[in-house]
Amino acid sequence: MSNVETEPPVLDCGDDAAGHGGVEVLGARDVPLGGPRAMKVRRTLPQRKRSLVGAWCFADHYGPDDPRTTGGMSVGSHPHTGLQTVSWLFAGEIEHRDSLGSHAMIRPGELNLMTGGHGICHSEVSTPETTALHGVQLWVALPDAHRHAERDFQHYAPPATDLGDATARVFLGTLAGATSPVKTFTPLLGAELVLEPGARVTLDVDPEYEHGVLVDTGEVAFAGSALHSTDLGYLGIGRATLELANTGDGRARVMLLGGPPFGEEIVMWWNFVARTHEEIVEYRKAWQAEAPQFGAIPEVPGAPARLPAPVLPNVRIKPRRNR
């Protein structure tokens, strides 16, 4: 999924703290994907208070959305560098095409992970049969040693892991005895958890990881702190267990994200992750020139148009880091 803002904000982010304190609760901001009737997303990462959770550097949450009203997702070919995209749906279906040659469907409970290191482009369009579109789009920053990695695409449908009054689908890393086979370039944890009313779970986790809980639906207590829909609760390193409780009347669904603090500075703008402002300028120039760095997607009748890059800001884009 693209960041299709025509004027992406340049965030002057402070230094993130990855210590042993309590839960930091982060709210989301609404971002329109196109015109006044277009689908909106709620963006939790990045923001001024926090840029990263482990190597997770971007989190959009969208829906439930009726494509018959908003047009759904119709994102034409657009580029990525220096990252992996993680697509996860709760409802609906999206058709994915990329310049590696991948043509895949994104369906609920199934992971699509695309690596756009040196450069890749892709498109995403919700299918005509979709009457409700609901999911998250996440990005993972690649470490310097691998940020020019070759294009790649992985698909994985994780089984449900029984946690008593809750279930988990572990799509990245290891949790509750379940391990994902999907390759990443830094240690990561990614899982969808569904908690029945009144459920309480205690999860063994790696104390060298920091963790974030993004609430999709319901109300939960995360390490004793209240979280509501679209909130992201953050906990720093040093925790060997995490406690989650459903405090609402219905089911609660959350995304659990984790990883060791990302020790490198990154520069993010539009759909690019880089290390310097100058790299961002060159990536934009290459995309506008239709350079082979990003490849191309075969034309499909009726497909949305290729996205042009927005105009660069009149300021230097500052790096972000998790200190």
Automatic annotation (TrEMBL):
<feature type="binding site">
    <location>
        <position position="122"/>
    </location>
    <ligand>
        <name>Fe cation</name>
    </ligand>
</feature>
<dbReference type="InterPro" id="IPR012093">
    <property type="entry name" value="Pirin"/>
</dbReference>
<dbReference type="Pfam" id="PF05726">
    <property type="entry name" value="Pirin_C"/>
</dbReference>
<dbReference type="Pfam" id="PF02678">
    <property type="entry name" value="Pirin"/>
</dbReference>
<feature type="binding site">
    <location>
        <position position="78"/>
    </location>
    <ligand>
        <name>Fe cation</name>
    </ligand>
</feature>
<dbReference type="GO" id="GO:0046872">
    <property type="term" value="F:metal ion binding"/>
</dbReference>
<dbReference type="InterPro" id="IPR014710">
    <property type="entry name" value="RmlC-like_jellyroll"/>
</dbReference>
<feature type="binding site">
    <location>
        <position position="80"/>
    </location>
    <ligand>
        <name>Fe cation</name>
    </ligand>
</feature>
<feature type="domain" description="Pirin C-terminal">
    <location>
        <begin position="192"/>
        <end position="289"/>
    </location>
</feature>
<protein>
    <submittedName>
        <fullName>Pirin family protein</fullName>
    </submittedName>
</protein>
<dbReference type="InterPro" id="IPR008778">
    <property type="entry name" value="Pirin_C_dom"/>
</dbReference>
<keyword id="KW-0408">Iron</keyword>
<keyword id="KW-0479">Metal-binding</keyword>
<feature type="binding site">
    <location>
        <position position="124"/>
    </location>
    <ligand>
        <name>Fe cation</name>
    </ligand>
</feature>
<dbReference type="InterPro" id="IPR003829">
    <property type="entry name" value="Pirin_N_dom"/>
</dbReference>
<feature type="domain" description="Pirin N-terminal">
    <location>
        <begin position="40"/>
        <end position="140"/>
    </location>
</feature>
<comment type="similarity">
    <text>Belongs to the pirin family.</text>
</comment>
<dbReference type="InterPro" id="IPR011051">
    <property type="entry name" value="RmlC_Cupin_sf"/>
</dbReference>
